[in-house]
C-alpha cells in the first residue's frame, strides 16, 4: 500500500513538473522573459533553515513568526494546543522541523504535513484535559466522526475539530475526514474552524453511542477570521482589530467583473462611487466629505506604498496609475480613523492592492475576455512559482483594445495594458527576504464627460430628436489639431489619444528579523509617469441662427435647419509629468503584551504640468463636426494656458502600539506627524500699472510671468481604538481620531493664491462597530461621525470671455453614517451578501464670493453665495447593494442590485437627482478544474438616469424658472453591456 502511494505521488509530481514546463513556455512567449522553476514537495518546507529568538512569548506569537520566516501556513486550534502558553526559543539556522520538535514537542504539540500546510495538534491524554471531570459521574465514552466539505461538496483537509471548552481536538485528513474520542458527560458542542471559512458549532448529546457528524463549512465572505496585513503593527485577525475594514478577494473580483479600477470600489461601504467616466477618471466620496470629484480623501496603495499623494481631483487621476488584473491577490480597504495613521493626508480611507508574490507550488491563470457589445478584446495572464529553495517569482499583466461603451466616432477608444512582476529572495538564515518589483503601464482610455439633454425635472436623460446622450457621443470627430503657443513651443494634439498614461516604476522591499526580535521592513519605490490628456468639455449650448452661415473645417458649408443647436466646448490638452520617490522604514516588535510599530517615511513628488484649453463650436448631434464662421478658419481658438510646476516633499514619522490587556480586550493607539515642504513656480497673466504682478487677472493663452514660492507646513493625526472580543465568534470595536486634510500643490499653484485662504483643515472622526462570524452568518456593522473644517472647494465657472475660471471657496461639513456588510448562506449552494451606507452629510459653513476671480465677477456680478445647512452634493442618504451567488456543481450564477438614493447635483440643493437601481449579473461554468467560462452583463435592466448635473453651473441656477425642454448638461449611467471570458488556471 505504501509503495502504491509513493508511486502515485511520484507520478503526480512528474505530471506537475511537465505541466509547469508547458506553462513556462507560454509565459516566455507572452511576456518575452524567461523563468524556470522546480517543484518540491510540501515536506521540503521542514528543511528550511530559520533563526528565531523569543523570550517567554505565547505559542501563537511564535507560530506567527515561524509563518513569516518560513513562508508557510500553520493550521491549529488555539484551545487544543493551549496556544496562550509561553515558550522561549533560541534557534540559529535550524531546520523548521527541528525547531518544532525542540520547542513545541515538550508542550505536547506535534505536527504533520497535509498538502501545503503544517497541522499542529495536541498529544495530551484524556487525563490532561484542563476541564476536571466530576468524580461522582461516570463518563460515557463515544466516538464522533465524519467528513467536512465546502459548499460544492469538495473535502476540506486541515479543518480543526475541537470539543468546545476542552483541549480535545484533531484536524481533518486529506479526505476531509476526522474521528474524535469524547468522554464529556451530558451535552457538548463540536467546533469546526478553518481559515477562509466561517466557524461552525454542532451541539451533541453523549449517550455512549458513536456519532457521525458530516458538515459543510461556508466561505467567510467578509473574511472576518482572515488576517489584516495593511499598515503598521503585527498582523491580526479582522475580528480582533479595532478597524473598519473590507476585504475583496480574487474570487470577489472575478464575480463582480469590474469594468474599471473605480468600479470595484462599489463593493466597499462608506464610499460613494461614480464610475460613469468609463475607463477615464472616476469620483469617490468617503463618509460624506465634500468635493467636486476625484479621490480627494482616499489613498490608493499598491503593496503598501501610495501611488500618488492623497488630495487630488481628476487630473492627475489615481485610477489611471493602477489597473485591476490577475496580478491582484487581495484588496484591503481600511476606512475611518486608522487610515490617517497609515498614509499622509488620508483621513477617509486607504485602499491597498496586494499582489501575488510567488509560492512553493507553480500557479497561474490565462484569461481571454471579449466585450460582446463594444468590440472588446482583452488578454490577461499571471503566473508564479519557485525558481529555487530561496527564490520565488510572480509575473503578469494584460492587454486590451475596444471601441468604448459609448462610440466616440473613432476606434479604438481604449487600448493598452501593463506588465508587472516581482521576485523574492529569501535569506539563507531564514530571517527574512528581499523582494524586488517593477511595473510598466502604457494605457490609453476614453474619458466620458457630460452631454446635453432636454430638461424635464425628472433627473432622467431624454432624447433630443435622434440624439441620445446615453449611447451617443458629442465629442467632435475632428480630433487632431496643431498649436504653437506664444512662447514658441509647437504641439500636436489629438482627442483620439484620450488619457494616455505611461508609467514605469521599480523598487524593493527588505524584511529582516534581528536577534533582538525587531522586525525591520523597508519598502521603496521609484515611479515616473507621463500622461497626455485630451478631451472635450461642453460649456454652453444655443439655438443656431439660420441667418448665419457656418462652415466645416474642409471649407464646405454646414447645412442648417430650424432645430439645430450649436455647442460651445473646450478642447483640453494637458501634458502632465511627475516623478515620485517613496520610502517607508518600519520597525516592529512584540514586547510582552505590546505590539509596537514605529516608522519613518519620505514621499518626494515632483510635478511639471502644461495645460491648454481651446474654444470650439460644434454641431449638436452624434459624432459632430467643428463649425467655423469663415471657410479656412482654425477650428479651435486658444483660451487659456496654465501650468503646475513644483515639488512636494513629505517627511513622516508614525507609531502604533496594540496593547493586549486581556484575552478579550485590546487597546491600540497611533499617531503620525507629517512635514510638508512645497516649492514651485506660480503663473500670473498680467502686470499692474506699477509693474507688479496682477494675481487677480484671469487666465489667458499667455503667461506673463512666474512667482516662486516656498512653503512648509506640519500636520498631525492621532487615533485610539479598542476591541472587545465578546466570544470566539464576535467582537465590538470603537475608535476616535483627530486627522487632517492638507493643501496640495494645486492649492499653492493657483494664480489667485492668497495665504489667508490656506487654513488649517482638521478632521474629526468617531466610530463604534460590531463584528460577528458563525455558522452561515457573518456581520460587520458600524456607526460613525465625521467632520471637516475649511475644506478647499474651488468651483469651476464657465465664463463667456475667459473660459473656465476657478471661484475659490471653503466649507465645513459633518456626517452621521451607518455602514454594514452582511453575508448569509441560506442553503449550501446559495449565498447572499448585503452591503451599504446610510449617511446624513451637511455643510455647517460654506460661502463663496465672486470677488475671488475678476472674470467670474464680471459675469455673475458681485455676489456672495451661502450653502450653509445644505446637504453635501452628489452624496446619497442611502446606498446599498444586495448580491446573490448560487453554486451548483460546476456552475455559478451571480446577481446584484445596487440601490442609490436621491442626491443633489450641487451645494445649492436646487436640483435633486432621482433614486435608481443598477443591476449586474453573471454566469460561469467550470468545464474542468483548469478551464472555466464566464458570461456577464452590466446594467442588466439598462437603467437610464443622471449621475451628475452641471457641476459648474447648477449652484447658480433657479430651476423653478427653467422651462421644460431647456437643454441642460448632465452625465448618465453607462448603457447595458455584455461580456464573456474563457480562463485556464493551473
Helix and strand arrangement:
Layout: H1 2-31, E1 49-58, H2 59-70, E2 73-75, E3 86-95, H3 96-103, E4 109-114, E5 117-122, E6 142-149, E7 160-163, E8 169-171, E9 177-182, E10 187-193, E11 200-205, E12 211-212, E13 215-216, E14 227-228, E15 236-237, E16 244-249, H4 250-256, E17 271-274, E18 283-286, E19 298-302, E20 305-306, E21 328-335, H5 339-342, E22 349-355, E23 363-371, E24 376-388, E25 391-402, E26 414-426, E27 432-445, E28 451-454, E29 480-484, E30 490-494, E31 499-513, E32 519-543, E33 565-591, E34 594-619, E35 637-660, E36 665-684, E37 705-727, E38 730-740, H6 745-749, E39 762-774, E40 777-792, E41 795-799, E42 803-807, E43 809-825, E44 830-849, H7 854-860, E45 864-866, E46 878-888, E47 891-900, E48 903-904, E49 912-913, E50 916-926, E51 931-938, E52 946-948, E53 967-972, E54 977-985
Parallel strand pairs: 2-5, 6-12, 6-13, 19-22
Antiparallel strand pairs: 1-3, 4-5, 6-9, 7-8, 7-10, 10-11, 14-15, 16-21, 17-18, 19-20, 21-22, 23-24, 23-54, 24-25, 25-26, 26-27, 27-31, 28-53, 29-30, 31-32, 32-33, 33-34, 34-35, 35-36, 36-37, 37-38, 38-39, 39-40, 40-43, 41-42, 43-44, 44-45, 44-46, 46-47, 47-50, 48-49, 50-51, 51-54, 52-53
Termini separation: 29 Å
SS field, number of helical segments: 7
Q: How is the CATH topology of the largest domain named?
A: Maltoporin, Chain A
Biggest beta sheet attributes: 22 strands, antiparallel, barrel
CATH superfamily of the largest domain: TonB-dependent receptor, beta-barrel domain
Radius of gyration: 30 Å
Beta-strand content estimate? over 45%
- Enumerate the spans where pLDDT stays under 50 for 5 or more consecutive residues: 1-42, 125-139
Characterize the overall form: globular
Helix/strand/pairing category:
mainly beta
Number of strands: 54
> What is the CATH class name of the largest domain?
Mainly Beta
Helix content: under 10%
* Name of the CATH architecture of the largest domain: Beta Barrel
* Tally of individual domains: 4
User: How confident overall, as mean pLDDT?
Assistant: 87
Domain TonB-dependent receptor-like beta-barrel: 449-940
Pfam families: CarbopepD_reg_2 (PF13715), Plug (PF07715), TonB_dep_Rec_b-barrel (PF00593)
Organism: Pedobacter duraquae
GO cellular component, one term: cell outer membrane
Amino acid at each position: 500500500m505504501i509503495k502504491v502511494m509513493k508511486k502515485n505521488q511520484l507520478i503526480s509530481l512528474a505530471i506537475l513538473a511537465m505541466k509547469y514546463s508547458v506553462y513556462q513556455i507560454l509565459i516566455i512567449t507572452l511576456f518575452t522573459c524567461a523563468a524556470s522553476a522546480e517543484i518540491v514537495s510540501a515536506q521540503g518546507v521542514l528543511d528550511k533553515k530559520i533563526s528565531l529568538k523569543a523570550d517567554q512569548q505565547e505559542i501563537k506569537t511564535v507560530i506567527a513568526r515561524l509563518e513569516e520566516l518560513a513562508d508557510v501556513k500553520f493550521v491549529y486550534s488555539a484551545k487544543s494546543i493551549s496556544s496562550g502558553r509561553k515558550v522561549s526559543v533560541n534557534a540559529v539556522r535550524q531546520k523548521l522541523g527541528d525547531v518544532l520538535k525542540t520547542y513545541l514537542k515538550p508542550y505536547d504539540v506535534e505536527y504533520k504535513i497535509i498538502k501545503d500546510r503544517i497541522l499542529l495538534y495536541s498529544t495530551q491524554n484524556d487525563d490532561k484535559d484542563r476541564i476536571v471531570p466530576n468524580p461522582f459521574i461516570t463518563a460515557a465514552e463515544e466516538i464522533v466522526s465524519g467528513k467536512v466539505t465546502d459548499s460544492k461538496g469538495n473535502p476540506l483537509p486541515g479543518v480543526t475539530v475541537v470539543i468546545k471548552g476542552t483541549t480535545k481536538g484533531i484536524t481533518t485528513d486529506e479526505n476531509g475526514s476526522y474521528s474524535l474520542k469524547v468522554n464529556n458527560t451530558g451535552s457538548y458542542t463540536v467546533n469546526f474552524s478553518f481559515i477562509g471559512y466561517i466557524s461552525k458549532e454542532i451541539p451533541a448529546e453523549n449517550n455512549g453511542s458513536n456519532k457521525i457528524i458530516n458538515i459543510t463549512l461556508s466561505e467567510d465572505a467578509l473574511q472576518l477570521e482572515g488576517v489584516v496585513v495593511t499598515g503598521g503593527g503585527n498582523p491580526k485577525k479582522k475580528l480582533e482589530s479595532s478597524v473598519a475594514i473590507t476585504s475583496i478577494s480574487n474570487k470577489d473580483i472575478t464575480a463582480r467583473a469590474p469594468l474599471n479600477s473605480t468600479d470595484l470600489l462599489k463593493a466597499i461601504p462608506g464610499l460613494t462611487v461614480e464610475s460613469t467616466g468609463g475607463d477615464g477618471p472616476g469620483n469617490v466620496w468617503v463618509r460624506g466629505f465634500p468635493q467636486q470629484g476625484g479621490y480627494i480623501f482616499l489613498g490608493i496603495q499598491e503593496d503598501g506604498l501610495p501611488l500618488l499623494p492623497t488630495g487630488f481631483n481628476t487630473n492627475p487621476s489615481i485610477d489611471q496609475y493602477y489597473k485591476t488584473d490577475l496580478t491582484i491577490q487581495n484588496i484591503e480597504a481600511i476606512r475611518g480613523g486608522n487610515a490617517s495613521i497609515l498614509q499622509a493626508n488620508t483621513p477617509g480611507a486607504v485602499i491597498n492592492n496586494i499582489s501575488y508574490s510567488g509560492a512553493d507550488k507553480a500557479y497561474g491563470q490565462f484569461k481571454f475576455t471579449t466585450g460582446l457589445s463594444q468590440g472588446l478584446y482583452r488578454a490577461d495572464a499571471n503566473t508564479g512559482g519557485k525558481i529555487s529553495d530561496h527564490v520565488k517569482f510572480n509575473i503578469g499583466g494584460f492587454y486590451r483594445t475596444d471601441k468604448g461603451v459609448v462610440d466616440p466616432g473613432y476606434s479604438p477608444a481604449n487600448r493598452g495594458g501593463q506588465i508587472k512582476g516581482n521576485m523574492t529572495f529569501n535569506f539563507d538564515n531564514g530571517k527574512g527576504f528581499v523582494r524586488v518589483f517593477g511595473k510598466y503601464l502604457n494605457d490609453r482610455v476614453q474619458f466620458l464627460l457630460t452631454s446635453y439633454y432636454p430638461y424635464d425635472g425628472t433627473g432622467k436623460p431624454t432624447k433630443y430628436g435622434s440624439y441620445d446622450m446615453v449611447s451617443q457621443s458629442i465629442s467632435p470627430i475632428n480630433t487632431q489639431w496643431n498649436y504653437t503657443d506664444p512662447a514658441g513651443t509647437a504641439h500636436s494634439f489629438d482627442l483620439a489619444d484620450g488619457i494616455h498614461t505611461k508609467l514605469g516604476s521599480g523598487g524593493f522591499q527588505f524584511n529582516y528579523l534581528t536577534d533582538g526580535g525587531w522586525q525591520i521592513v523597508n519598502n521603496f519605490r521609484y515611479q515616473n509617469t507621463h500622461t497626455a490628456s485630451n478631451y472635450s468639455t461642453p460649456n454652453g449650448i444655443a439655438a443656431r441662427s439660420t441667418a448665419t452661415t457656418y462652415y466645416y473645417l474642409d471649407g464646405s458649408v454646414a447645412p442648417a435647419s430650424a432645430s439645430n443647436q450649436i455647442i460651445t466646448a473646450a478642447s483640453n490638452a494637458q501634458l502632465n509629468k511627475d516623478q515620485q520617490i517613496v520610502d517607508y522604514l518600519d520597525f516592529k516588535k512584540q514586547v510582552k503584551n505590546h505590539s509596537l510599530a514605529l516608522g519613518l517615511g519620505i514621499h518626494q513628488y515632483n510635478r511639471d504640468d502644461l495645460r491648454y484649453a481651446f474654444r470650439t463650436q460644434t454641431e449638436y448631434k452624434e459624432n459632430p463636426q467643428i463649425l467655423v464662421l469663415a471657410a479656412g478658419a482654425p477650428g479651435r481658438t486658444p483660451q487659456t494656458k496654465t501650468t503646475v510646476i513644483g515639488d512636494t516633499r513629505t517627511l513622516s514619522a508614525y507609531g502604533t502600539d496594540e496593547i493586549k490587556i486581556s484575552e478579550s480586550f485590546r487597546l491600540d493607539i497611533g499617531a503620525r506627524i507629517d512635514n510638508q515642504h512645497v516649492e514651485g513656480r506660480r503663473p500670473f497673466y498680467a502686470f499692474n500699472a506699477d509693474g507688479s504682478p496682477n494675481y487677480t487677472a484671469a487666465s489667458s493663452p499667455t503667461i506673463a510671468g512666474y512667482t516662486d514660492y516656498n512653503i512648509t507646513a506640519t500636520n498631525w493625526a492621532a487615533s485610539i481604538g479598542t476591541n472587545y472580543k465578546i466570544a470566539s465568534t464576535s467582537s465590538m470595536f470603537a475608535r476616535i481620531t483627530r486627522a487632517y486634510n492638507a493643501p496640495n500643490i494645486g492649492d499653492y499653484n493657483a494664480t489667485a493664491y492668497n495665504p489667508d485662504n490656506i487654513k488649517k483643515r482638521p478632521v474629526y472622526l468617531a466610530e463604534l462597530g460590531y463584528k460577528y462570524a458563525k455558522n452561515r452568518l457573518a456581520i460587520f456593522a458600524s456607526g460613525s461621525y465625521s467632520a471637516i473644517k475649511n475644506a478647499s472647494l474651488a468651483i469651476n465657472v464657465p465664463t463667456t470671455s475667459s473660459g473656465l475660471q476657478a471661484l475659490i471657496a471653503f466649507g465645513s461639513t459633518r456626517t452621521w453614517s451607518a455602514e454594514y456588510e452582511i453575508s448569509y448562506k441560506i442553503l449550501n449552494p446559495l449565498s447572499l451578501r448585503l452591503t451599504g451606507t446610510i449617511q446624513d452629510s451637511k455643510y455647517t459653513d460654506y460661502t463663496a464670493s465672486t470677488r475671488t476671480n475678476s472674470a467670474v465677477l464680471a459675469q455673475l456680478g458681485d455676489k456672495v453665495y451661502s450653502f450653509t445647512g445644505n446637504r453635501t452634493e452628489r452624496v446619497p442618504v442611502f446606498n446599498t447593494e444586495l448580491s446573490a451567488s448560487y453554486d451548483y456543481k460546476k456552475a455559478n450564477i451571480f446577481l446584484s442590485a445596487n440601490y442609490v438614493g436621491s442626491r443633489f447635483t450641487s451645494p445649492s440643493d436646487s436640483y435633486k437627482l432621482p433614486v435608481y437601481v443598477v443591476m449586474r449579473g453573471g454566469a460561469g461554468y467550470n468545464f474542468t478544474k483548469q478551464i472555466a467560462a464566464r458570461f456577464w452583463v452590466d446594467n442588466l435592466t439598462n437603467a437610464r438616469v443622471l449621475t451628475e448635473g452641471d457641476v459648474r453651473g447648477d449652484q447658480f441656477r433657479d430651476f423653478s424658472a427653467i422651462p421644460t425642454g431647456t437643454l441642460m448638461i448632465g452625465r448618465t449611467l453607462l448603457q447595458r453591456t455584455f461580456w464573456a471570458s474563457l480562463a485556464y488556471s493551473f
